[in-house]
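hey so i finally got around to running both of the ones u sent me last week. sorry it took forever, my laptop kept dying halfway thru and i had to restart like 3 times lol. anyway pasting them below in the order u listed, first the sequence line then the structure token line for each. didnt double check formatting much so if smth looks off just lmk and ill redo it

first one:
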Amino acid sequence: MGVSSGAGSGAGSGAGTSARAIIIGGGIGGVTAGIALQQAGIDVIMLERAEELQEVGSGLPLWTNALSALQKLGLAEAIEAIGIPATAVKVSNWRGGILADLRSEDLFKELGTISTVVHRAELLAALLNAFDQEKVQLGATCVGFRQDTEHVYARLADGRELAADLLIGADGLHSTIRAQLFGAQKPTYAGYTCWRGVADIDSTGLGTWTWGKGYQFGITPMTNDRAYWFAQRYTPEGMQDKEYGRKCEVLELFNDWHDPIPRVIQATKEEHILRNDVYEQKHLRHWSHGRVTLLGDAAHAMTPNLGQGACLAIEDAVVLASCLKTTPDVVSALKLYETLRIRRTYSIAQFARLMGWVVQLGNPLVSGIRDGIAKRIPEEVLSKSLMWILEYKTPDLRPGDAQNPGQEVQKRSIVRPQTLEL
């Protein structure tokens, strides 16, 4: 068994000085981490089990918190080139009656762009343009790791070992690295399935989030006369597509919902519709052990009801790089990283689960009461319930923060206090 070394000492003003990191996983979170670490002066090796780097997906909302993190990496213009900014949120019932219209809400106006909707594949391509792709090893399946006081060694399926100063598990919901760190755990089925599609349609004015009885449907404009949409409903785990195809099945479910929902589904090619059961992972009190840590879904897989999964992975990447850049010791840097991230990601995961329950209430009487309450809630209250997520800024860390990772560091990252307590 050969061992490739070249790992740095991790000494200097920060752990990034002459350090090497191995990233397991070449998705959005992993590549963003690669960019952030390279900018922090860390040599990166990325191991991706697939034979090519590509995202199988559809649309993806990058909310303000993720856009802020990407701006720190100098990627604002790249994102603007592939996305359409959204400046408001409108919620309606399945007949088209307005439940909430935040287009004129002052707090959202302060944010400017609330989100930018991109195609996942186009986002990954933009990120790869900012990353040294010579550092990517494709067809490289990591089956585990070992570590000592100086280095960590990634074990590959082909028998090789690669050495580094730290290892980052960005390998998704079924993370090999998470399983070795904290034991294998089966992801929890959330109880519903999600269809996602990209329609070829003039998307001007099509943005909506619609609540029904046990269902929800959302539409957001994209570039190049496209619209991203998603639909969710409660179903038994593992249900297969109807024999007449996904498009017909979704049309059957939403044919009597308000315009433009049926029209958008009709404008979507069958092959552009994805279907996935929704899963989440059990909350972890720690993400790191020694020189190994987790990032993105490997650390905090959650339901998609707030559209924050990829956004939080992007935040993770920027915060991790900052911790490594300003903290002399790798182990201390990883402890600071998890201290800064675990509470926030857990709070958002809890909020996302709650939103899924509220939005998909199946009882007609109860969902009618929900709609009535939603119409009476002041718009300012609704917007404030989201601002603690959207206004987040990744903290500007200073040397010594690892010794005192308390409220002072947290205050540099949160503009307004969180409204959801653990």
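and the second one:
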Amino acid sequence: MNTQDIIQALAEILEMDASELAASTSLDTLDTWDSLATISFIALVDEKSGHVLAGDDLQKAKTVGDLIALAQSAAA
């Protein structure tokens, strides 16, 4: 998955426009980044890469860029 694909998929999960997301966007500022969005992101990465993200790794994510890095490392 490339960065734009991940941002687009994340925007769909968060029910917002992809143009509102950047790698520097803090997850704390996103009202819709909640437990359901987290599970949806885990499912997305699993579907695309066959790799289930570790909860500890996801808890360390602070920005959209961190999520992108996790998704791309899972796909590698």
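quick thing i noticed on the 2nd:
Residues 35-49 form the longest helix (15 residues).
anyway thats it, ttyl
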